[in-house]
Structure formats: structure tokens, C-alpha cells
Write a structure and sequence with these properties.
Strand content: 5-15%
Number of helices: 12
Order of helices and strands: HHHHHEEEHHEEHHHHH
Strand order of the largest sheet: 3-2-1-4-5
Radius of gyration: 21 Å
Distance between the termini: 57 Å
Helix content: 40-55%
Structural class: alpha/beta
Length: 314
């Protein structure tokens, strides 16, 4: 961003504060532009938001603040952190999607209309054990299923490669396909069984992604479904990316956050698309025709045995 050329131009600091005010409140431009300290025309606020958002989306900033583990040492550090906090071995991260509402787009409207009957981006996020977001993909519309987004994401092939030599996986809910690199819960596990114990451990560890999403949306309330981003999908996705970067900066600086009011949290929950639990009996019935699924079942069974044995030992 360039420094102001004239005395009457807004400073870079003022532009950033205007953008932060929008990200944090989700209030639309007139209230922000009317802040007493600097009365700014609405069209100027819109231009400023575009400039700051574009700046935060520069590749050097994204690669600095949104970092998927790049080498074996970083992967080991992530895995150890998950194990120390949740007792689950091999976990590199937790994956989930969240809907961010947008106005009806002018093109390809059907790609953005979700099952909850509003237009949205379906944003895929992966986080680590400390609620830092290590991957974001805001390029898909609300009509796309979580599993479809993951199946087309470059990290899927990366995880496939890693898992050939390392006992390493992501944790996802039952809407994702079970694979050797993506562990899912067993939703119909009988009580007091190794499978139920594994699922309890899985759910407690995977909850970190739900808490991460809640924390980010509490910090940057423009992402709440009922606030609705009044921008075309590309700009809305750039705003999501900017908020992810700022969320990670806040985490590293231990910036406190005001939690959502109960009614706001409930409203957000009701407007999100919830995954229909997939019964494990249905998963097993498809294994004969799907080698990847058979591999996933084998790896998960080994993990179940490992967790049950370690529980018995303690």
C-alpha cells in the first residue's frame, strides 16, 4: 500500500483500522464510515476494504501466516502437540468446512445455493492443536459438499504420499471418506468397546477445528452467516483469507476475544449445514469394492487396538 500523497488522503494506518473495523463487526460500510474520529464516505470505505484485503492476500503474506507443515520436523512437532493435548497419535491436523453467507452472485448462482437455502461459500479449513489454521480453501460455493472439496484439494495427494511412509492422518467427521490418511469416527460403536473408546478420543481431538471456527468467527464477525458478505464470491473469498491470516496473527500474540452471545452462537449453529452421521456398517459394506477404503479400515483398526491397549496399560 502506498503512502498518502496529499494531506487529505487517508493514512495507511487509518485504512487498516477501517478494514479491521469491518472484519471485526460485519457492520456495513455506512456505520464504519461515520466513525466520529474520521468521517469517511461510503465509497471510500469500500475502496479501502478492497485495498487492505488485496494486500493481506498477497502470496508472501499467505505463505508467512498460513503454513501447512513443510518437512518431517514440523510434522513431528504438530503430531506431538496433538498427542500431548488429546492423547491421539499420528494427528497432523483436523479438517472441516464452514459456510460463510454471501449475497446472490451474478454468475453461476446455483453453485452457491446451499441446502439451508441461502447463498454461501463452503470454506475448507485445517487447523493444528493450538487452533492455528494451517490451510484454507474458500474457492467453493455452498452447493459443494465437504468431501467433494477435499477430493479436489492438492493436500489430498500430498497426504496420500506422506502416508505411504509415515503413520500420519487428519481427523474428519463422518462426512469425509475413511482413508489411511483421514480418520473418521465410528458413530454406531457399541458402548464400552475399543471402537467407542477410539470414537470418544477422535471426537474430543477433532473438536479443536469446531472451536477454531468459532473463535475466528467471534473475532471476525463479518464471517457469521447472519451478517452476509455483500460481495461477489472472489472478493468474499479474499475477505475469508484475510480473516484467517489475522486470526493466526491474533493467536500468536495471545489476543483475547469476546465470545459470541449464546443467541448468536445458536443462530450460527442453526444456519450451518450439519453432517448426517454415516453408519459404520455402511462403510464396511463398501469396502470390498474400494481398495482405498479397505486400507483406511485397516489403519483405523490398528489405531483402535493401539489406543485400547494403551488405555488398558494405564
Amino acid at each position: 500500500m502506498t503512502k498518502p500523497a496529499k494531506f487529505t488522503d487517508l493514512s495507511i494506518e487509518t485504512k487498516i483500522l477501517i478494514a479491521l473495523s469491518f472484519y471485526a463487526t460485519g457492520s456495513y460500510q455506512r456505520p464504519i464510515g461515520d466513525i466520529a474520529a474520521h468521517s469517511v464516505p461510503q465509497q471510500t470505505v469500500s475502496a479501502v476494504l478492497g485495498q487492505v484485503t488485496q494486500g493481506l492476500n498477497m502470496p508472501q503474506l499467505r505463505s508467512k501466516y498460513i503454513t501447512f507443515p513443510r518437512d518431517a520436523a514440523q510434522r513431528r512437532a504438530n503430531i506431538l502437540r496433538f498427542y500431548n493435548k488429546f492423547g491421539m497419535p499420528g494427528v497432523l491436523g483436523c479438517i472441516d468446512c464452514t459456510h460463510v453467507a454471501i449475497v446472490r452472485p451474478s454468475q453461476n448462482e446455483e453453485r452457491y445455493y446451499c441446502r439451508k437455502q441461502y447463498h454461501s461459500l463452503n470454506v475448507q479449513l485445517i487447523c493444528n492443536a493450538d487452533m492455528d489454521i494451517i490451510s484454507v480453501d474458500a474457492s467453493y460455493g455452498g452447493a459443494s459438499h465437504d468431501a467433494f472439496i477435499w477430493s479436489n484439494h492438492p493436500l489430498k495427494a500430498h497426504m496420500e504420499d506422506l502416508s505411504t511412509n509415515e503413520a500420519i492422518w487428519l481427523l474428519g467427521d463422518s462426512g469425509y471418506p475413511l482413508r489411511r490418511y483421514l480418520m473418521t469416527p465410528i458413530v454406531d460403536a457399541p458402548p464400552n468397546t475399543p471402537e467407542a473408546y477410539y470414537t470418544d478420543m477422535h471426537v474430543r481431538a477433532r473438536n479443536v477445528i469446531e472451536r477454531t471456527i468459532g473463535l475466528m468467527k467471534a473475532r471476525f464477525r463479518c464471517l457469521l452467516v447472519h451478517r452476509v458478505l455483500h460481495y461477489e464470491p472472489h472478493m468474499a473469498a479474499s475477505i475469508v483469507n484475510a480473516c484467517v491470516i489475522l486470526h493466526n496473527i491474533c493467536n500468536k500474540a495471545n489476543v483475547s476475544v469476546e465470545e459470541l452471545q449464546p443467541e448468536e452462537a445458536l443462530r450460527e449453529y442453526e444456519l450451518q449445514q450439519l453432517t448426517t452421521p454415516r453408519q459404520d456398517s455402511a462403510v464396511n459394506s463398501r469396502a470390498a469394492q474400494n481398495p482405498e477404503l479397505r486400507e483406511g479400515i485397516t489403519v483405523r483398526n490398528n489405531l483402535i487396538d493401539r489406543l485400547w491397549t494403551s488405555r488398558s496399560a494405564t
